[in-house]
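Entry type: protein chain
Record version: 2
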Amino acid sequence: MAEKKSNREKLNEITASIEQGIKELFQSDKYAEYLRTMSRFHSYSARNTILIHMQRPDATVVAGFNAWKNKFQRHVKKGEKGITILAPTPFKKKIEEKKLDPVTQAPVVDANGNVIMEEKEIEIPMFRPVKVFDVSQTEGKPLPQLASPLTGDVQNYEIFMEALRRTSPVPISFKTLEQSMDGFFSVDNQSITLREGMSEVQTICAAVHEITHSLLHNRERERLSAAAGTEQAGKIKPKDRNTEEVEAESVSYAVCQYFGIQTGENSFGYIATWSKDRSLPELKASLETIGKTANQLINDIDRHFKEICKERGVDLTQPEQTAPEAEVPAELPEDKPFEEPPPDVLPEPSEQADTSLDEYPLPDPAFSADDLEHHCGYMDGDLLPLSKNRAMELLERDLTVYAVQTGENPVMVFDAEELVEQPEGVVFAVSKEEWESSPDFHQLIMDRMDHQEERERAFLDHGGDCFAIYQIKDDAPDRLRFMNMDWLTSQGLSPDRANYELAYTGEMACGLGSTALERLYQKFNTDHPADYHRPSMSVSDILAVKQDGVVSCHYCDSIGFARVPDFIKPENYLKSAEMSVEDDLGMIDGIINNGPKEQPEKKPSVLKKLKTPPKPEEKRTAPKKSAERDR
């Protein structure tokens, strides 16, 4: 297959965004309100914390019956069973004891030598059992939440869930659970339970979270392995719960983000809740573990997904049935539908020529991909044609070269001498799969990035329906990556072409209308073209489409797309178009008006034309910017 950006590189980008997302949350009013409320809850001793966990492992915040009522305007639901803890109930008692010298600590005596006794009040510690209740056992005024419930559907959800089941080291089942609990991993039963009735996005997020617990925090399995002599028991050092939860949710976010399932609104809040402080010690100490585990899960999920599709006869080449090899978008929400681009967003040149978009880099440009079929009748499509000289070059680079003759099966060429001895009429070829895995193929694709202006002009000037994908440059500010439009707006920012590079261009079918964005999003997340060696389309990317001659640009948001009408400036496009079709610099005036005209006997110089004022009847008025821009 084509050499693509490694999972490690993709995950490095994703995990780098976790800390930034949480820090943004720490600075928000939402977090300040959360802290104000949480500070009113009592801090329990280590002994009581253990008691609470033993009786209700899913407990998050607990308080007494009256505290819920008076402090938080909530009341305990009828029939709820309280959690028993030990409350201190000390009592005071007066006793007599020897009076001691404050310096020497020796007993003080009177004139007769008798030890002086004094009365002292002491406090004797005592405890009594009391009942407290978890927030899930109460109802009333909502508590501020950092983690928001996730909504939305996942494409091929049933297949994806089956891939998760096969990836999980323990069984997964669904049951009715408290609304505050999405799921749990049971060490005793070696199983994962998920709450019924959640959205597809929430279910996937919770499943990956609990699978991570079963992989990283399965202490019972570790204990058994150590007892069997496969691992030294002394090396088993259980992590505290804060670290376990931060690791599990960070892995869940990274895996879901890779597959295009947006969970940041929930994950960042959850991780912040379990972090000890704003320096995120648990996250920073676990980044390597998070990256390795996420990479393992992504590979396993992707492999199982493809296996299931093959078993069920799902054609992965069809857009509506593609596997989530990279990202699976949720459906576009009703409040952010695809908007048909308004007319005249960008004027078209009067003489439109078909220009070249990004093309598949063939191993030998002298041949087309179907020349083997035309010249030799070879129709399998797994080989690409070569000239003899090019075949010699690739053979020296350890690529497998074949000799193809009409009516014969391809024959492998083992060395340069055998290649030279091949008879006339032979067409040489290289395996398409091997070519796509070669450094030469990758380098040809990377060379495109050095031709930004030419490729953008090709996209804008192209005669048919086409698209262009823009991604943030490596040297652009990191805070712009993977941020949704609401965050950009809150910071007074907007997508700036200067921070982006043109990643890929291509043709698309006519008549797609409002479905174009969604189809392209799916394609560049689940069924990449072989010559697309860029990160999967994700939040902060720009997707420009040209339909019926009209160009419109769209920001890939957390859910759906947001229009960015000024991303490609109309005046820049006009200048590019005019430079290619107008006769002289005097015509670079904001209007494409080149056409046949009488030529003077002697064409005046450009300098003379610039110095000579135009005649009144020749003056042209450039259109106002308001007419060129989409506002």
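Comment: The radius of gyration is 35 Å.
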